[in-house]
Amino acid sequence: MRKIEHLISGKMVAGASGNFADVVNPATGEVIAATPLASADEVNTAVASAHAALPAWAAMPPAKRAEIMFNFRDILKSNLADLAPLLSQEHGKTNADALGEIGRGIEVVEFACGIPHLLKGEYSSAVSSGVDSYTMRQPVGVCAGITPFNFPAMVPMWMYPVAIACGNTFVLKPSEKDPTVALRIAELFGEAGLPPGVLNVINGDKLAVDTLLAHPNIDAISFVGSTAIGEYIYQTGAGNGKRVQALCGAKNHLVVMPDADMDQTVDALIGSGFGSAGERCMAISVAVPVGEDTADRLVAKLKPRIEALKIGPHTDMDAEMGPVISKQSFDRINGFIAGGIDAGAELVVDGRDFKLQGYEGGYFMAGSLFDNVTTDMDIYKEEIFGPVLSVVRAKAYDEAVEMINDHEYGNGVAIFTRDGDTARDFNARVQIGMVGINVPIPVPVAYHSFGGWKRSLFGDHHIHGMEGVRFYTRLKTTTMRWPSGMREGAEFNFSRGSDA
Fold it and tell me: Are residues 133 and 31 both part of a single domain?
């Protein structure tokens, strides 16, 4: 069986702890590799490598760092066709989904190529007599990233390209469920000219995470994953004096106004609700039609489209949806569906009994659709993270807005309407971090920043874009005056002007 390794100081290193986790192909249920679970000593070695590489890398001119970023971008593009199956074989998502994911990661690398401009500070001359002031952004230090299974290529690339371009070094702890593509991309970064130790990849479980959270040489931590774990990481990391950003769970609504283009809306819900088998924090899992007629029309159009979803392994280029990641996820999602039925919701489309010939051991399920869901049901309140769409009927627009604002999560939301006044009001009133207007998955492009509100985010900064640059740098402000013409005498205040 293939044994996955760590990447430390630019070299692949075999796991030495003796502990391994199975990597399973979710299309077949077969174990295809073993991921090493690092010991504290192995994590410490990776951090030491990053710490040793920091001074030289931080001192490198930003233009030189950008040159390596440009090389990395070109290498990634030339390897797209090889990277996608590495991702899909361990995660299960379709080939098209895998290509799209890697493409979104490359966009962040492209953003990081502009780091010489992004790090420019501000300058003010003559803030007082003979006194000038300017700001500069400097690296935070050694940064760590803890990333989830659902985007094993994209989410790491939301983190370390920006961190590294800013002059930091980085230790990545990918999900143990599907680490291979992250390791391969890190190898490619080395081929682009990244010095050894600037990026290290350590595989592991909670022990590795806790070691990073407590390590005195880790200065900043980025996390994407569930809210419960994200809150723990934020509290523990911040308690240890680290800068922390934790992007967490979601329950994303799509409001359907009576004037919406219903065909466009259904297309949007199919893609955003069932793409990547619903295993993404920006999936639309709740449709909120306003008015009974709108709801009836929506459900009537959704039902046949969900039933017709083409489900298959990533090797089927026509597949629209692959399996979910694991048996644990499969059972959890089925439990939510059973719970929704018990709570009184109407199961319009039941995806639980789907079987794919030749892949009976895989974790395939078809899409499920609930109608007449209420806000007290678990299928509404909790993040299912699977191909389940709930319809919650709202009598009026204000009720839909109140429903969204009352939810504990505030990651993403969308509204479909032809009315500009309604869209403008919705955008102003809704308490959500990312809003789509006739756009179902409002993931910001790389030069804007991604992040939610409420319990979807712990920390002050969103990820990538300028918020990413701010997170991975510290602002320094310098006020300077040179000896020539300096007046003698002590100063006892902060006065400004000609007699300062």
Answer: yes
pTM > 0.85: yes or no: yes
Contact, 248 vs 231, CB < 8 A? yes
Q: Flag whether 422 is in a domain.
A: yes
Neighbours of 249 (CB within 10 A): 21
For residues 469 and 429, membership in a common domain is answered with: no
Give the range of the structural domain holding residue 155, as residue numbers without chain letter. 2-248+456-478
User: Using CA atoms, how far apart are residues 216 and 81, in angstroms rounded to an integer?
Assistant: 40
Instruction: List pLDDT tens digits, range 427-446.
Output: 999 999 999 999 999 999 99
pLDDT in tens, 303-323: 999 999 999 999 999 999 999
Q: How far is CA 97 from CA 222, 272, 453, in A?
A: 24, 12, 26
Give the CATH number for residue 27: 3.40.605.10
**What pLDDT is attached to residue 1?**
83
Picking from 302, 309, 386, the residue whose alpha carbon sits closest to that of residue 346 is 302
Contact 199, 157 (CB under 8 A): no
281 catalytic per annotation: yes
Average pLDDT value over all residues in the chain: 96
Any domain includes 330: yes
Query: Are 173 and 287 in a shared domain?
Result: no
Q: Which of 113, 166, 248, 281 is catalytic?
A: 281
Question: In terms of domains, do 169 and 269 share one?
Answer: no
